[in-house]
Design goal:
Layout (H helix, E strand, L loop, with lengths): L12 H9 L1 H19 L17 E2 L3 H7 L4 E3 L14 E3 L5 E2 L4 H7 L15 H28 L14 H12 L7 H17 L7 E9 L5 E7 L25 E7 L4 E8 L6 H9 L2 H15 L3 E3 L7 H12 L12 H11 L22
Antiparallel strand pairs: 1-4, 2-3, 5-8, 6-7, 6-9, 7-8
The structure holds zinc ion.
The site of zinc ion has 8 residues, from helix 4.
């Protein structure tokens, strides 16, 4: 069976032309679905303080002061900017609409994240309080996203008979692709556990010197990198192919362990750091490997991880790429997790396939946007 057709987020030229010709209709349907799902997944209470809440705050997943450093006239490019023939997704957005989620009240939003949302606090390595606030924010975003996704999944069930995809007319293809933007793991329990972990720590922090987050890699650069990133990522394997997480292990007792990665372009410098909960031990080898690399290679690996595994990156609109680099970047961003019939192959094969597809040996095949070469030039 050929699943190649769905290994990328792009449509063929013919499909895209059809989409463009009917774009208004498609977009209407699309926003109707989203709004319906948003309405039904809307919470009644603020997730942090538990108070009844009628209008939720537009919380930014990446602090505004960081987005400002890379925006141009208030605008920022999304990963879709680099993908040809991509339906539904905005290629550029204003700072106000960048990475927004609604699950907490305005009061909590303005007081819970103050340490990490202050540029003055980045003179040295982030403190435990800042890390907890970042972890808290990342888990809240996950919870909010998964609540919306599970509602959307009810509106758009993925095709049951996967063998018939090739014969599908365009509309279901668009639906299918849209469903792909929604990640497949719908369980919120792990995000809730991460939230509780961070929240409990924040409560006791003022009274203790305890530490709960381990910084596995951290670097301060004396130039401004052209993208911002703050999110959780799950790695399945380390730099040399040893397993970190078995992401196809569906047994309820298996807990996936994530890392939190931050790429913060500041006014004249940049801070990049990766951390994990201190009770998560599966990344120790990975951190060791990363720290042994030269700065250039370590940045190239981090750049690869972010661009391959996450769609929540926000770019400066003036990145200067050669044509070939643009193509490499586009191929890597458009690549989606493989679609294979997990009923017909063993978990080992699935793992092997995934590892080949996302092997770290490919990291130099894409432009390293975190290198000095791509720094944002002063105006
Ligand atoms: Zn609140």
């Amino acid at each position: 069976m050929d699943y190649k057709r769905f290994e990328t987020l792009s449509l063929s030229d013919e499909e895209y032309n059809h989409y463009k010709a009917n774009e208004i209709d498609y977009k209407k349907k699309h926003s109707k679905l989203i709004n319906k799902a948003r309405e039904s997944s809307k919470p009644e209470k603020c997730y942090i303080c538990g108070k009844q809440c009628s209008s939720f705050c537009n919380s930014h997943s990446i602090p505004r002061f960081i987005l400002k450093n890379i925006s141009d006239n208030g605008m920022i490019h999304t990963p879709a900017w680099f993908i040809k023939n991509i339906p539904f997704v905005d290629k550029e957005v204003g700072i106000n609409k960048t990475g927004v989620f609604k699950i907490i009240c305005k009061e909590c939003d303005s007081k819970v994240f103050t340490d990490y949302e202050n540029e003055d606090n980045y003179k040295s390595i982030p403190t435990q309080i800042m890390l907890s606030q970042i972890a808290l924010k990342n888990s809240l975003k996950q919870i909010s996203k998964k609540q919306l996704e599970s509602q959307l999944h009810q509106e758009i069930p993925p095709p049951l008979n996967i063998s018939s995809i090739e014969e599908m007319p365009l509309e279901p293809i668009l639906q299918y692709m849209f469903a792909q933007f929604i990640t497949d793991i719908l369980d919120t329990s792990e995000a809730i556990d991460d939230y509780d972990y961070a929240q409990e720590f924040l409560k006791i922090l003022s009274k203790s010197n305890d530490y709960r987050y381990h910084i596995g890699y951290s670097i301060k650069l004396d130039y401004v990198v052209p993208y911002a990133f703050q999110s959780q990522i799950m790695l399945t394997h380390d730099l040399y192919g040893s397993i970190i997480n078995r992401n196809y292990d569906m047994s309820p007792e298996y807990r996936i362990q994530n890392i939190d990665i931050c790429v913060f372009p500041l006014k004249e410098t940049s801070q990049i750091f990766i951390f994990t909960r201190s009770d998560f031990t599966r990344y120790s080898k990975f951190y060791e490997q990363l720290n042994k690399l030269s700065q250039k290679d370590a940045l190239s690996i981090i750049n690869y991880i972010i661009l391959v595994f996450s769609e929540e990156v926000y770019f400066n609109p003036n990145i200067n790429l050669k044509l070939s680099e643009e193509k490499e970047l586009s191929d890597c961003i458009a690549k989606v997790a493989e679609i294979i019939d997990i009923r017909s192959v063993s978990p080992n094969e699935v793992e092997k396939n995934h590892m080949n597809r996302f092997s770290f040996s490919n990291h130099k095949n894409i432009p390293n946007l975190l290198s000095l070469e791509f720094q944002i030039k002063g105006e």
